[in-house]
Write a structure and sequence with these properties.
The N and C termini lie far apart (58 Å). This protein has 19 helices and eleven strands.
Length: 434
């Protein structure tokens, strides 16, 4: 397909303003400022069926329409660049290579919702990316694409960057807002939702980097063009982060609805070292795993992946070969979520800790049969009982690991440490000559 979100691969130095403008950059912003009303912008994005790329898949235009039209308080826009989901790295490349597209999307979104202040909340580890993005902001200010009276339109917009402190929970939109305001990132109870009471108690839109990067292309080329890419209810280009035991890991732009089998075997070059496929996590570590049999039947769009029993999330596709131990994989996953839990909710704080402790003991050979059902029961009782989705993010993959690979858990019983590691160790012993 035509490169849309990754056109920087074909256009060197697209991060520079002169190169970006020379290749049609900021045309969409001009159109939004001079040729369209805020309502027309929102309707165009609504009609495109653009859905949020940060994981929740909520309709972007609908989210914008929730902002009160005659707000007496200032309206804010927050660009969520806190890319912390294991298996995802698309936002990092966008920030490095196409920062002006993100800024243009921010400008259009702010015009649509009546915001004159935008914050870009960056993952704490994005030091180099922040330097590149700050340079792009400075260029935009110097050429009146940001600041007072943008391009003579009478519209003002100030954009600020803010780095987090490396906490996974800041990717959740209300945790992000708490952090932005200078507090610990405890997620907020909802309602009220950010559209009514967000940053600093004011109406706020929170959109992901990739979501905003789609907006200039929709405004330039129209909703009908956008809907023609992939399934109508879940359209557009998507950045897939392919990693794990695959020959060609990397960032790939593909149309929504692309077959997962083709992503792994055609785009990704198949399973590393000629091994067989055991499972695939389709949207980042917080979502249920597909078995090899399930994975080859799935198309990669929000609705198809959900129908198959998982979630597309942010598009972090992690491939697992048949030499890997699922119990160990579950343990590594739970160690991450136990460490990243903010501790605010009892089900998440206690649940992730107990799951981690049980999996440590279980994988080392100290498990008993009732542990398997207890872990599933504990995970099921975490679901839907926390302020934010982190509890679900720990529970959903654990339930899937146990249901779909129960035999591997049973193989670890009877006082045995990981039998899969034992088998691999034996395979790697040198052959003795007789």
């Amino acid at each position: 397909m035509e490169r849309i979100l990754t056109r920087w691969m074909d256009i060197p130095d697209l991060r520079r303003l002169d190169v970006y403008v020379g290749n049609g950059g900021y045309k969409a912003l001009r159109k939004a400022l001079f040729d369209m009303s805020p309502e027309q912008i929102i309707n165009e994005v609504k009609n495109s069926n653009l859905r949020g790329r940060g994981g929740a898949a909520f309709a972007t235009g609908v989210k914008w329409s929730f902002i009160p039209k005659e707000s007496k308080k200032p309206v804010y826009l927050c660009c969520n660049a806190d890319e912390s989901e294991p298996g995802t790295f698309a936002n990092r490349y966008e920030l490095e290579n196409d920062p002006h597209c993100i800024l243009e999307g921010i400008g259009i979104a702010c015009r649509a919702v009546g915001s004159h202040i935008a914050y870009v909340y960056l993952r704490g580890e994005f030091t180099a990316q922040k330097k590149i993005f700050d340079a792009a902001i400075a260029e935009a200010y110097a050429n009146n694409y940001l600041g007072k009276n943008i391009l003579g339109s009478g519209f003002d917009l100030e954009v600020y960057t803010h780095r987090g402190a490396g906490a996974y929970i800041c990717g959740e939109e209300t945790g992000l807002l708490e952090s932005l305001e200078g507090r610990r990132a405890y997620p907020r109870n909802r309602p009220p939702f950010p559209a009514i009471q967000g940053a600093f108690g004011s109406p706020t839109v929170v959109n992901n980097v990739e979501t905003l990067s789609n907006v200039p292309h929709i405004i330039n080329r129209g909703a009908d063009w956008y809907k023609a890419i992939g399934p109508e209810k879940s359209p557009g280009p998507k950045l897939f982060c392919l990693s794990g035991h695959v020959n060609k890991p990397g960032l790939y732009e593909l149309p929504m609805g692309f077959p997962l089998k083709d992503l792994i075997y055609d785009i990704g070059g198949g399973i590393l070292d000629g091994k067989a496929l055991k499972g695939v996590i389709p949207g980042g570590s917080s979502f249920p795993i597909f078995t090899a049999e399930e994975a080859v039947k799935v198309n990669m769009d929000f609705d198809s992946v959900a129908k198959a029993g998982s979630m597309l999330g942010s598009g972090g596709v992690v491939v697992i070969d048949d030499a890997q131990c699922i119990v160990k994989f579950a343990l590594r996953t739970m160690k991450f979520y136990q460490h990243e839990s903010c501790g605010w909710c009892i089900p998440c704080r206690e649940g992730t800790d107990w799951l981690k402790k049980t999996l440590v003991r279980f994988h080392s050979g100290g498990g008993v049969k009732k542990d398997i059902d207890n872990m599933q029961y504990l995970s099921e009782n975490m679901l839907g009982r926390t302020f934010c989705p982190l509890g679900d993010a720990a529970a959903m993959p654990t339930i899937a690991f146990i249901k779909k690979f129960r035999k591997e858990f049973e193989d670890h019983l009877e006082g045995r440490p990981c039998p899969y590691e034992e088998e691999r160790a034996l395979e790697q012993l040198p052959v003795m000559a007789h």
